[in-house]
Amino acid sequence: MDPMKITTVMTTATMEENSAVPHLEKAASTACIMATNFLAPVKTDKQIYENSMLEDDPNANSVVTTTSSEYKTVPRWGPNHKGAQELANLYSTGKRTQECICVGICITLMAVNSVFIIIRLRLENLSSIVIAALCGIVTADFISGLVHWAADTWGSIELPILGKNFLRPFREHHIDPTSITRHDFIETNGDNFMVTIPALCKLTWDFLTLPESEIQRKFLWSCYWWQLAIFVAMTNQIHKWSHTYFGLPRWVVWLQEYRIILPRRHHRVHHVAPHETYFCITTGWLNWPLEKLKFWYILETLIELGTGYKPRADDLKWAQKRS
Ligand SMILES: [Zn+2]
Ligand SMILES: [Zn+2]
């Protein structure tokens, strides 16, 4: 071969290689940036530190340093926040009575349905039952997120019936997150127990009235609804544990550490003002994927476009009632 031709071929190949290298480098660097953004924490330690209450530090050794004297006299969070005190005082006797009745009915129905289901459990259908139960738990996590998001984001305390009875605890919880740890079993669980009652009534009715063949045919669905009801009912107790940094039973800490129920550090992400993400509070399994899909943001944007209402307007109003 002509030496000149060989040189030309080599030069062309080298030029092509050289022009391909920057493209490859650019693609690799874009992929790196995308991966870094994708895997970045939803809230950084700095954001958590500066924009949420330091509820795991009772001695305030890590209190946020600030030059503002206003911060020291009018607390941004906690039981001395004026808005939190006003909201706590709106807890009425009527509301307490409703919670007591709901807890009683729910526990009775739960016990009856548990007996109906446990006596029908068979080893041969155990794997399908476990899958049905897992689906129930995931659904409960999603429902906890949807209800929590709706209550945090929309409506106001001024709404008749709904406001003072059902939205009040959500507003209070953002400005005094540890108040939940001072609530007793009834106040913590009353509303969640209430929402499971219709499904538990239907399950009981089916077990009592349907022929055994029909009960067997629908058995996996029954297991699904049973687990869904249990986890929906347990959600606010699990949520309370996620705010309890001292004196938790070891088995609860174990469940949190293995992410079977909502872990404490995980839930701190929701409590970073303005409380716009990580709404799922049963297991918290769906928080990360929903955040990456921008699920809540898209939903809020569509509602704001359709109605003109600003998300979290009432929540912000209460947060600002500091004095
Ligand atoms: Zn919230
Ligand atoms: Zn919380």
TrEMBL record:
It comes from the Eukaryota. It is found in: Membrane. InterPro entries: Lipid_desat, Plasmalogen_desaturase. Its main location: membrane. Residues 137-314 form the Lipid desaturase domain. It is a multi-pass membrane protein. One of its GO terms (cellular component) is membrane. GO terms for molecular function: oxidoreductase activity. Pfam families: Lipid_desat. Keywords: Membrane, Transmembrane, Transmembrane helix. The chain crosses the membrane at residues 100-123, 129-151. Belongs to the fatty acid desaturase CarF family. This is Lipid desaturase domain-containing protein. The lineage of its organism: Eukaryota, Metazoa, Ecdysozoa, Arthropoda, Hexapoda.
